[in-house]
Amino acid sequence: MKFKGRKLMNTDSFFDFWDKSDPYLKFLKIRNDNTFVEAARTEIIMDSLDPNWKHIEISAGKLLNKDDNIGKFKIECWDW
């Protein structure tokens, strides 16, 4: 999988206009009890509101529950 972000919110500093967020993605597995556990994450892209992350491979077994036929998971974007 390959992901891009466009026009992300700058969350680094309200008064510091030249500093930008350092985004990365977290891939969260949904457990049977509806809690989340991190399964993988992308690299951090420093000072970018338009990140272009490198290709990431995540096995289905790492991201999905074996009893889950639908294949639910969650992706979140964070600032480092």
Topology:
Layout: E1 23-30, E2 36-41, H1 60-63, E3 73-79
Antiparallel strand pairs: 1-2, 1-3
Short account of what is shown:
By secondary structure, the protein is mostly beta strands. It has one helix at residues 60-63; strands at 23-30, 36-41, 73-79.
Gap between N and C termini, in Å?
Answer: 21 Å
Overall, the morphology is elongated
Largest sheet, if any?
Answer: 3 strands, antiparallel
Average pLDDT, all residues: 87
Largest sheet, spatial ordering of strands: 2-1-3
Helical segment count: 1
What share of the residues does DSSP label as strand, in percent? 25-35%
Rg from Cα: 15 Å
Helicity, as a percent range: under 10%
- Global structural class: mainly beta
How many β-strand runs?
3
Q: What sequence of helices (H) and strands (E) makes up the elements? A: EEHE
Report the uncertain regions.
none
Can you give a write-up of this model?
The protein is mainly β. It is built from one helix and three strands. The chain has one helix at residues 60-63, and strands spanning 23-30, 36-41, 73-79. A three-stranded antiparallel sheet has the order 2-1-3, with no helix packed on it. It is elongated, with a radius of gyration of 15 Å. The two termini are 21 Å apart. The model has no long low-confidence stretch (mean pLDDT 87).
From the structure above, extract its key features:
5% helix, three-stranded antiparallel beta sheet, 80 residues, mainly beta
